[in-house]
From TrEMBL:
It comes from Thalassococcus profundi. It catalyses: L-glutamate = D-glutamate. This is Glutamate racemase. It comes from the Bacteria. The active site is at C70 (proton donor/acceptor), C194 (proton donor/acceptor). Belongs to the aspartate/glutamate racemases family. Keywords: Cell shape, Cell wall biogenesis/degradation, Isomerase, Peptidoglycan synthesis. Its EC number is 5.1.1.3. Substrate binds at D7, S8, Y39, G40, N71, T72, T195, H196.
Length: 270
């Protein structure tokens, strides 16, 4: 009955933490492709190939349902995977859907015409690959009109977080927020469009100011997954054990993960 959670590195642990707390009876298998991180500087074909390989490894671990807890993979690879690669008895879901639902206050299956929503200006902070894909803007435009989105590619932030250099990560976040605010001085809302970024959420909020609503994906994904499994219990795979897997050095990744989540995390080699 296991569910897979995939990220290019350690950022997806922010999602895993919330979904595991929301669904304590479900074993989760987490796979971080740390050997190839970060994905945010790679082209779409590269992201697609790497993501497919990791998803197949999670299928082998007994996870019929895999959550791409990686915005770059969700933006650059998910649609292509779903249209031409994922077999009928498997599912691969991304992290954009719950976020779009929250912003537009409508369910994903609501195919009525786009309409005006309360939020008018949105700052999107994401990796360069996610920004290039324009996936967030595309999905939002299907459901809402009159929303101005300003995207800021946050180069270097993921690398700093993966290296455990939070001082550099904070400096980079503040620099990127300053750059965004020069283009959009007073956004209504801000999207942390990378699952690494919740680790810096307080810095984003402080730099943006108290009047900006900052949307982080982890809690939204947890509620969405609980709802999905309630409607599709057959998608719980045959795996029975919770695992942490990495394509990188297990000891180094375990130490970093323990630092992030402030509890002991032990990774095995994928």
């Amino acid at each position: 009955m296991a569910v897979g959670v995939f990220d290019s590195g350690l950022g997806g642990l922010t999602v895993l933490d919330k979904v595991a707390a929301r669904l304590p009876e479900v074993p989760f298998v987490y796979l971080g492709d740390s050997a190839n991180a970060p994905y945010g500087v790679r082209d779409a074909d590269d992201v697609y190939t790497l993501t497919c390989a990791s998803v197949e490894r999670l299928w082998d671990a007994g996870c019929d349902l895999v959550i791409l807890a990686c915005n770059t993979a969700s933006a650059a690879a998910l649609r292509r995977m779903q249209e031409s690669w994922v077999p009928r008895d498997k599912r691969v879901l991304g992290v954009f859907v719950p976020l779009i639902e929250a912003l537009t206050e409508r369910q994903w299956g609501d195919n009525s015409p786009p309409r005006e929503v309360a939020v008018k200006t949105v700052a999107l902070f994401a990796t360069p690959a996610t920004v290039r894909s324009r996936a967030f803007q595309r999905e939002l435009a299907f459901r809402a009109i009159g929303v101005d989105v300003e995207a800021q590619a946050c180069g270097g932030v993921v690398d700093a977080i993966e290296e455990g250099d939070m001082i550099l990560a904070e400096a980079l976040v503040r620099s990127h927020v300053d750059a965004l605010k020069r283009k959009m001085p007073e956004p209504d809302a801000a999207i942390l469009g990378c699952t690494h970024y919740p680790l810096m959420q307080e810095v984003f909020q402080d730099a943006l100011g108290p009047n900006v609503s900052v949307y982080s994906q982890a809690n939204l994904v947890a509620e969405s997954l609980a709802d999905y499994l309630g409607r599709h219990p057959d998608m719980l795979g045959p795996g029975k054990d919770s695992l942490f897997l990495t394509t990188g050095d297990p000891k180094r990744v375990s130490d970093r993960a323990t630092q992030f989540l402030r509890r002991r995390i032990a990774f095995d080699k994928a």
